[in-house]
# Entry
Amino acid sequence: MPQRRKHIPSIKIVSEKIDKKWKYDYETKTFSHPLYPNKTFKAICDNKTKEYTNEYKDKYGKKHFKKITENISTLYPHIPPDEDHRNIGYNITTKSSSYNFDIVSNKMNSFWDTRYGKKYIRYISYRKTRDLNKKSWLEMNPPKIKKNIH
# Structure
């Protein structure tokens, strides 16, 4: 006889990354925001599984360990990018298959927040210190000017 899988209810948590003005209605399972009055948005779930062991004692004082599995669903408001004029929503991007997906913000990423932008900031800082070192070295060792007499 095949083993039955026990249903593990998930704990629903609104994400900390979203704007604080988002309101989640647990009855209708939708988000609302003051910037989009009279509109509600569906939620996207980012599911994670958390396992831990719990220790308890029976009536005889013997220790027992019980493995507990929790499903934690982090909720994000889903707005397609063409409908999100304020860029406050989230969307799904798929990778190689439909089973692998990421939840990304509709906000545009600044060049300076990317890996190459941070690298370029360090390069600019290096150039400034190099120019200061060159200037101070030239003050300490002025170039010798030869005078040509004709």
Residues 10-108 form one domain. The CA atoms of residues 52 and 68 lie 5 Å apart. The radius of gyration is 29 Å. Helices lie at 115-140.
